[in-house]
Amino acid sequence: MMAEKPTVLLVEDEPAQREVLAYNLAAEGFTVIQAADGEEALMLVAESPPDLIVLDWMLPLVSGIEVCRRLKAAPETRAIAVIMLSARAEEVDRVRGLETGADDYVVKPYSVVELMARVRANLRRARPATMGIVLEYQDIRLDAETHRVYRGDKVLKLGPTEFRLLSTFMEKPGRVFARDQLLDRVWGRDIYVDTRTVDVHVGRLRKALCQHGGDDPVRTVRGAGYALG
């Protein structure tokens, strides 16, 4: 029910290969969604943006490189980490993949252990709180592993929803999150919650952050959503 686990979209047209990777990603604790071609991948991302995409270069209908180019060109999907898989080991191909916006490039045949390490490393950069990292913003510190939040030297009391809201904001300070994006990240993608619920919990988060004094760091952006700082 909670949107704690990072979601990985696996785009691979070889069923056997896809099965092995999906199994290993699930074993690592990720939520895995799958696509067998570039068109399906773009449709799934539009419906529900994942945290990371493992993307094969050679795909039917729309190539992996074109999928990557489109996602990185759009502001709403630009931040999604993309790991490109390719049998093309030539430097010129690797450069082309990275220039298209891929965050990482893995040459086939690859070791599954190495690929899982790359997935974890890229997710640490894209969504640090889901990987148990301590996040800091001004005098606020959030420890994802111990589930504690500090402001200065004081421990703050936060409910589980407020904690997930704050971790989302602290992963990308300054970024404006629309209410729908917050619903996806904090409540989960398959749960129907009214957008006004977001406003209620942002209000509770503000109160919790200022329980020992200090300025309210959460900013309301009219017609757009909320941001930290």
Write structural notes for this entry.
- The model has no long low-confidence stretch (mean pLDDT 85).
- Strand 4, helix 4 (91-99) and strand 5 form a beta-alpha-beta unit.
- It is built from 8 helices and 11 strands.
- The chain has 229 residues and is an alpha/beta fold.
- It has helices at 15-27, 38-47, 64-73, 91-99, 112-126, 160-171, 179-187, 195-209; strands at residues 7-11, 31-35, 52-56, 81-86, 104-107, 134-137, 140-143, 148-151, 154-156, 218-221, 225-228.
- The chain folds into 2 domains: 7-126, Response regulator (Rossmann fold, 3-Layer(aba) Sandwich), CATH 3.40.50; 132-228, Arc Repressor Mutant, subunit A, CATH 1.10.10.
- The strands form 3 sheets. A 5-stranded parallel sheet has the order 2-1-3-4-5, with helices on both faces.
List the topology elements.
Blueprint: E1 7-11, H1 15-27, E2 31-35, H2 38-47, E3 52-56, H3 64-73, E4 81-86, H4 91-99, E5 104-107, H5 112-126, E6 134-137, E7 140-143, E8 148-151, E9 154-156, H6 160-171, H7 179-187, H8 195-209, E10 218-221, E11 225-228
Parallel strand pairs: 1-2, 1-3, 3-4, 4-5
Antiparallel strand pairs: 6-7, 7-8, 8-9, 10-11
Write a short abstract of this structure.
Helices cover 41% and strands 21% of the residues. With 229 residues, the protein is of the alpha/beta class. The chain has 2 domains: 7-126, Rossmann fold (3-Layer(aba) Sandwich), CATH 3.40.50.2300; 132-228, Winged helix-like DNA-binding domain superfamily/Winged helix DNA-binding domain (Arc Repressor Mutant, subunit A), CATH 1.10.10.10.
